[in-house]
Amino acid sequence: MRPPVPVPTLSRRAKLVIGAIAVLLVLFTVVGTLTNVYVDYLWFDAAGFTEVFWTELQTRALLFAVAGVATGGLTALAMYLAYRFRPTFRPMSLEQQNLERYRQSLEPRRGLVLTGIAVVLGLFAGFTAQANWETWLSFRNSTDFGRTDPQFNVDLSFFVFDYPFYRLLLGFGFAIAILALIGSLLTHYVFGGLRLQTPGQKLTAAARVQLSVLVGVFVALKAVAYWLDRYGLVYSNRGDVFTGASYTDVNALLVPKTILMWVAAVCALAFFANILVRNFLLPAMALVLLLVSSLVIGVAYPAIVQQFVVKPSANQKEAPYIERAIQSTREAYDLTEIDYVDYAQQTTGDQVDPEAALAALRDDTETIPNARLLDPNVLSDTFTARQQIRNVYGFPEKLDVDRYTIDGETRDYVVAVRELDSAGLSENQDTWLNRHTVYTHGNGFVAAPANEVVSRGQEGGEPNFTTRDLPTRGTIDVEESRIYYGELIEDYSVVGAPEGADPIEFDQPEGGSEEEAINNTYDGEGGVEVGSFFRQLAFAIYYRERNFLLSNAVNDESKVLYVRDPRDRVEKAAPFLEVDGDPYPAVIDGEIQWILDGYTTSDSYPYAEQMQLGEAAADALTGTGTTALPNETFNYIRNSVKATVDAYDGTVTLYAWDEDDPVLQTFMKAFPGVVQPNSAMSDELRSHVRYPEDLFKVQRDILTRYHVDNPQTFYTGNDRWQIPDDPTQNTDQDQPPYYILAGRPGEDGATFQLTSALNAFNRQNLSAFISASSDPETYGDIKVLRLPGNTPFRGPQQVQQTFNTDDDVARDLNLFRSADSKPVFGNLLTLPIGDGGLLYVEPLYVEGTGENSYPLLRKVLVNYGDRVGYADTLAAALDQVFGDGAGELATDNDGDTDDQGPDGDAAGDLPETPETPETPAPPAPDAGGGTDGAPAPVLADAVEDMNAALRALADAQRSGDFAAQGQALADLQTAVTAYQEAQRASEGG
Q: Hey, which of 665, 857, 873, 969 would disulfide with 892, CB 3.0 to 4.6 Å?
């Protein structure tokens, strides 16, 4: 017999070194983890959401402990029993001799090895289980939907709340059974209970009993799985074009699943019986029966039925199941109460009846006056150039649209707050003290009517800022304009100082000097107090920043502001919500509030089509000033919560918007007091809520397929719609929806609504127009205008192509594309006019190519039927399409904007202190001179004057001569006017 090979051992010094390293790693890990948890707790405590913190922490800990102990403990127990009942004597064989050295190595360390296996498996299981804390809370606090499933006649809450938890339990059951079986097999093999190569008996009695029990448990769990699989048919994709139980699932798989459940149960009993029978023949026969049954009646039979019964007449066989899918999908995506309107233009095809169209236009007194000319997706640079004030401030890449009622008139505005832009700090400003204690906040609210521009004077084509500047002044009253919480603020800030101490926070510039500034000390309720040494140490570890301990800026009165993005704050306060990617600011009772939409979602609603949330809510603007939602699977969504975040103190308030949502009700049970009732919302806050964009994008995607009622039409897909690509960008991404203030067919007055055009599937023709109301009285009312399918109405891409190929437009686009300027198309808005017309309106901006250039509105394009309008103003463009007088209702019908600023000065005047930006270049013609017969010398002179004015403006900006800049801008405007007059003269000739 060959003597066993000894196992190598470590020296005492090596053991000490390894032990010390292990202790340090554990210490750093524990300290880091505890610090993160403590800093998290401080945030929840300061924000008033400790209920959320403790509930989530306790639930995670409970699941971690239960899953860890069950998985690690039961696996270790199975291995211990296998060792405990090992044979005392083992037959001598080469196999056993080879195993002897392993037995000798394991014997003195078996307790340590068993404990290590239990701990490792327990940790893996615990970490996996704790991530499912929402599943447990949903199961424990489930709320009935009040609707039953048509197949199994159980409340839908079983599928949404109970079924996922049962599946989770079953998954852990399978994992434990498999791990215990593997561990037992290995233990029995090493210690002689299982002898694969030794002659004679292969299994000891103890090994046979234990392995029979474990395999029996596994097969019994398989019987439970078959029972759950029956309910899982409501998520089947066998129907190809729809989700849910199909004809084959109901008629050829439902009963077989029940049969397989009983076969598996019998098979499990056979394995348990093997404890007494002591013969593997019976359980082996039962196992073979289960495998054959699962292949024949669980796989082959349904496949035969699907291939030879369903497919030849699928549209008829699947009809009742398609009806279920249509109804359930509409319910899941809150699309059961859609107002469909058969809407047709008063002409056939593209031929316009001028008299009828003009009559419809004049009868519609709500849409044209409110036609939006400012594109919030384009004007960020314009807001920055005219209202940034200092480099430490900034505006988001995408601005927002909201509506305000001023002097009894409701209008939509492009709005933004002047935030602290952490990324905009210059090199000398980017020290720890400046970044975290001096530049701590933004300041100011800026708003411009969405249907106005300043169209006279040297700032022609700019927004008419009716609320602006520092300190904030204008038609919207702002009592607290400081912005400590916003989308651009990336860093934490340390604020607060002892009473009487000089304030060090930069608040706003004073006068015209760069060096003069008004400082401030934060006195709001937000932030976490950090006065004690222990908290300073915690934050120093958390941020890995020693200045928390060394800097005089951190004192007994200090607070730390962190988690400052509004979306992050709401997601942290309500982790059961998905938050819309586009928060927007609103002035509520004089305070600036961020308004956000929270969604409750589920991936377990029966018969409803499943989608990827991130993909469904994406469009051409996602990621450009908006945040992409996580790409999670879902098939149920509700805008269940409206949330606000105070821009000054960060207060998060959650309101139950859809109080009938069972998912929200379930989480309100789990987190009592976290969400306030709908009645707690103020009327002013209600007047600023918007129908959320991400939800709308998901719903319009669903409507492209599920707007039809006839199952056979749904199956063939011949009435399918499609979201058009964004025609203003070189992309194949979806056109974003747009907020507009306009009349809706069949309704009185203007409605603030979110809208989108829909094309025919794989065609560019328009098929429908969808709008969702944001007005408090009609909030959520979705109206779909269905166009005749046999008439080729132009869709957005076709309209854009019509614009691009128009002679006048094409000529100017060539002029605008120069070394000094570029054209920028604004949003292409689709506006229903009267009872049968769709008007397209698109602003055209021109932007210089210089570093500080920004877009200015120069032209407006209009399309109705086969007619194109292209002019300096919307009024003039409407006159071109409908005839003289059509533009009377447009706000720019006189070619000028007479609105004045809040103090009676011209609305477009420069604020008192901002840095004057580089003005964008106007169009420059091609080197050839005249166009379309225009007098080349006249145009050439005008272009030369424009270029001279631009050079003078650049020189004045470099020298800081404001008077010279004003003169250069005036000369530039004169040259542009001369150029336009020369063009009009040539066209008139």
A: 873
Alpha-carbon distance 172 to 217, whole Å? 13
Give yes or no: residues 215 and 282 share one domain.
yes
* pLDDT at residue 933 tops 50: no
The H-or-E segment that residue 494 falls in is strand 493-495
The backbone torsions φ and ψ at residue 508, rounded to the nearest 5 degrees and listed phi first, read -170, 155
Residue among 386, 536, 416, 535 at smallest CA distance from 487: 416
Q: What pLDDT is recorded for position 979?
A: 74
Two tokens at 872? Answer: 């300096």
What residue type is 985 in one-letter code? A
293 with 405, same domain: the answer is no
DSSP 299-315: IIHHHHHIIIIIGGGHH
How many other CB atoms sit within 10 Å of the CB of residue 530?
Answer: 24
The torsion defined by the Cα of 323, 325, 329 and 330, in degrees rounded to 10, comes to: 0
Helices (H) and strands (E) in the chain, counts: 31, 32
Closest listed residue to residue 331, CA positions, set 638, 711, 597: 638
- Give per-residue pLDDT as tens, 870-881: 999 999 999 998
Of the three residues 247, 268, 302, the one that is the final residue of a domain is 302
Residue 925 has pLDDT above 60, yes or no: no
Q: How far from 364 is each of 370, 581, 716, 939, CA to CA, in Å? A: 11, 34, 39, 40
Identify whether the C-beta of residue 322 lies closer than 8 Å to the C-beta of residue 702.
Answer: no
- Under the banding of pLDDT at 50, 70 and 90, the label for residue 286 is confident
Q: Are 461 and 610 found together in one domain?
A: no
- Asked if 108 and 219 sit in the same domain, the reply is yes
Q: Is 308 exposed, middle or buried (0-12, 13-18, 19+ CB in 10 A)?
A: exposed
pLDDT at 608 over 90: yes
* Residue 281 or residue 492, greater confidence: 492
Name residue 483's beta-bridge partners.
442
CA distance 720 to 708: 8
**Distances 299 to 221, 268, 287, 292, 312 between C-alpha atoms, Å:** 20, 22, 17, 10, 20
Its domain, for residue 488, covers 378-532+548-563
Lowest average pLDDT, out of 186-195, 419-428, 485-494, 890-899, goes to 890-899
Give every CB contact of residue 668 below 8 A, 6+ residues apart in sequence. 656, 674, 675
Q: Which two tokens stand for residue 828?
A: 């292409």
pLDDT digits 0-9 by tens, 935-961: 556 666 777 777 777 777 666 655 555
Rg (CA), the chain: 35
Q: Helix H segments across 902-961?
A: 936-959
Co-location of 600 and 556 in the same domain:
no
Tens digit of each residue's pLDDT (9 = 90 or more) over 122-172: 999 999 999 999 999 999 999 999 999 999 999 999 999 999 999 999 999
The answer to the question of residue 475 being in a domain is yes
- Mean per-residue pLDDT of the chain: 86
Q: 647, 672, 690 — which closes off a domain?
A: 690
